[in-house]
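User: Just a sanity check before I run the rest of the batch. Below are the structure tokens for the first item. I only need the designed sequence back.
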């Protein structure tokens, strides 16, 4: 079911996932040690946090890597996002927060990591993620992409929707960590009538 050799797509029943993680994949993971979880994280959601917790059980070190991309006009600066993530992961052993610019594969090389973690929420995520994974492999064939599934209750959560719903007065308290909610309240005016 799972190809530990190139990139891994975990699908199927809970039993299948457990079986997979305990046989080939654990060997593969333990040989790697460091995972990089890259993204914009503007802001961190409970979906991201759920993935970080899951990855932390599989790798010695998890490097959450915030992309420095001012072109995207983010709501929070890179340092604000790093601070928020650091505050939210402080209870998870082995997790570090970094930022990077330029190519992800170059960052991976600098930190001596081979595994990229990406969360897949729905089939619609897959096409873009496949392209990125294959491009990264083209750029550096020793970099492997591992797709992880978040808890089902977060499969519809994205940073973009969280910001939109919050701006319009919707309740996002279940979708983001409390510290992120506080920062949203401090940063974003809520629309009148919301
Ligand atoms: O959370 P996002 O915005 O979907 O994360 C996208 C990210 C940061 C993983 C991706 O844009 C990225 O890796 N950017 C770095 C530039 C790069 O390496 N591009 C070529 C590989 S596709």
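Assistant: Here's the designed sequence for the first item:
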């Amino acid at each position: 079911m799972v190809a530990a050799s190139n990139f891994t797509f975990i699908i199927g029943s809970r039993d299948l996932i457990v079986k997979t993680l305990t046989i080939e994949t654990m060997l593969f993971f333990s040989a790697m040690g460091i995972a990089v979880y890259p993204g914009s994280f503007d802001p961190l959601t409970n979906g991201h946090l759920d993935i970080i917790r899951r990855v932390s059980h599989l790798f010695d070190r998890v490097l959450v890597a915030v992309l420095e991309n001012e072109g995207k006009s983010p709501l929070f600066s890179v340092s604000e996002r790093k601070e928020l993530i650091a505050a939210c992961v402080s209870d998870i052993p082995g997790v570090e927060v970094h930022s990077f610019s330029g190519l992800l594969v170059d960052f991976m090389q600098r930190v001596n990591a081979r595994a990229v973690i990406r969360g897949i929420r729905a089939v619609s995520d897959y096409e873009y993620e496949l392209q990125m994974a294959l491009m990264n492999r083209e750029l550096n064939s020793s970099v492997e992409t591992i797709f992880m599934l978040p808890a089902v209750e977060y499969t519809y959560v994205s940073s973009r929707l969280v910001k939109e719903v919050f701006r319009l007065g919707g309740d996002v308290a279940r979708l983001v960590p409390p510290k992120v909610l506080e920062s949203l309240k401090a940063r974003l005016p809520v629309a009148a009538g919301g």
